[in-house]
Design brief:
Elements: H1 2-50, H2 61-72, E1 87-88, E2 99-106, E3 114-115, E4 126-127, E5 129-139, E6 142-143, E7 149-152, H3 204-207, E8 211-216, E9 226-229, H4 238-246, E10 253-254, E11 258-259, H5 267-280, E12 285-287, E13 292-294, E14 305-311, H6 313-321, E15 328-342, E16 345-351, E17 354-355, E18 371-375
Parallel strand pairs: 7-14, 8-9, 17-18
Antiparallel strand pairs: 1-2, 2-5, 3-4, 5-18, 6-10, 7-9, 8-16, 11-15, 12-13, 14-15, 15-16
């Protein structure tokens, strides 16, 4: 009878040990697999936003970044199995392709099943572990690390009474509501903001890869190539202004904010700050084949990519017509990669940019240029 009780006790002890050791390992593996899937989904969305919004191929940056990142997050000491077919692009509830889903596996079917420690005694040598995560790039209503110079958003050049453009917007255009004598134009330029379905401004689909040359604005002209300095929160002066270009001002700027022009000439501090950014990542360059930044030692986070506020050209021009003190309203944020400077000119390309969602700033406009990255599942 003692032997019987001893055998029963041993089996009970063995079962408890199996539960404590193997089940504990399974739970840890499940958590690590979920971390792997989460990281892969987030990396895939970041690559969509920063590298290419349209390339969803198996060899594209979104898929490859998702796979690479997921595999770097090991599950109980080994990389999970993630194939190109495990990275998909489901639509969001609005029917837009803003999401990346990643599935990771350590299963017998993938020959990566998780071996048990005590389970073989009970005939269970391996177990399957899998996880899935979905991340989304949703419209952003706010930005940090915004640079203290701004350009106007795009508009429709000369609209007739039937709502058709009679001119062509170029980087040399000028936004006009009145003629040189102050009389209202019969066919004025027209701007629709990012919260309007008729939005006329910069978009990821139409403008990423566009080459822009920015020069210090003169007078009060609203010209796509003229930038104006604006007063950032915290301080004024050339040194503070230059540092905010060379580094990151963490102040949160939101869509619709009113901003005022920085007093004094800031041409020199602007170029000095931009040159300092270029020196931080000298190997980065614009790749026209993917319309993205290549060669950066910071990966997808080159300091040479930064947000520029886009101001509402109509609000500014209307203020001048009505005699209001010249101020500016943020209409959107543009991603910009600076390639070089010459004299007082800044050369670069329109690129994707990652923003944030400020819950206190109201809903983001549907046509917001920057995207906020978040896990949704």
């Amino acid at each position: 009878m003692s032997l019987v009780y001893l055998a029963i006790g041993f089996m009970t002890f063995l079962a408890a040990s199996t539960l404590a050791i193997d089940v504990g390992m399974f739970m840890m593996a499940r958590t690590q697999a979920q971390n792997s899937a989460d990281a892969g989904a987030l990396a895939g969305v970041v690559a969509l936003v920063r590298n290419s919004w349209t390339d969803r191929s198996s060899t594209g940056p979104a898929v490859q970044s998702a796979i690479s990142t997921a595999k770097k997050n090991v599950v109980v000491g080994s990389a999970p199995s993630v194939l190109t077919s495990d990275v998909t692009f489901p639509n969001d509830p609005g029917g837009q392709p803003t999401r990346v889903q990643v599935k990771v596996y350590r299963t017998a079917a993938r020959q990566t099943a998780l071996p048990t420690l005590m389970g073989p005694i009970l005939g269970i040598s391996t177990v399957d572990i899998a996880a899935s995560a979905t991340a989304e790039a949703s419209p952003a209503n706010a930005m940090t690390c915004v640079k203290p110079f701004m350009i106007p958003d795009k508009w429709i050049e000369n609209m007739d009474d039937k709502g058709k453009a009679t001119g062509t917007w170029t980087t040399s255009s000028q936004f006009d509501l009145t003629d040189s004598k102050g009389a209202t134009l019969t066919k004025p330029d027209v701007y629709y903001g990012a919260n309007d379905p008729r939005y006329t401004g910069y978009t990821v689909a139409n403008d990423v890869g566009t080459n822009l040359t920015l020069r210090a604005g003169t007078g009060d002209e609203v010209n796509p190539s003229f930038y104006y300095s604006w007063k950032m929160p915290g301080d004024t002066g050339g040194d503070f202004y230059r540092e905010n270009i060379a580094n990151c001002n963490t102040s949160l700027m939101t869509w619709g904010d009113l901003i005022t022009q920085e007093p004094g000439a800031m041409n020199g501090p602007t170029i000095q700050g931009v040159d300092a950014l270029i020196d931080k990542d000298p190997g980065a360059h614009w790749d026209t084949s993917c319309k993205c930044v290549a060669g950066s030692k910071f990966g997808t986070n080159s300091p040479r990519v930064f947000p520029i506020p886009l101001y509402d050209p109509y609000y500014y021009a209307l203020g001048k017509v009505n005699g209001r003190v010249a101020d500016f309203r943020i209409a959107n944020f543009l991603g910009f990669f600076v390639s070089s400077t010459s004299g007082n000119a800044i050369f670069g390309y329109v690129t994707n940019i990652v923003g944030v969602v400020d819950k206190d700033a109201g809903p983001a406009p549907a046509a917001a240029f920057p995207k906020a990255i978040r896990l949704v599942q």
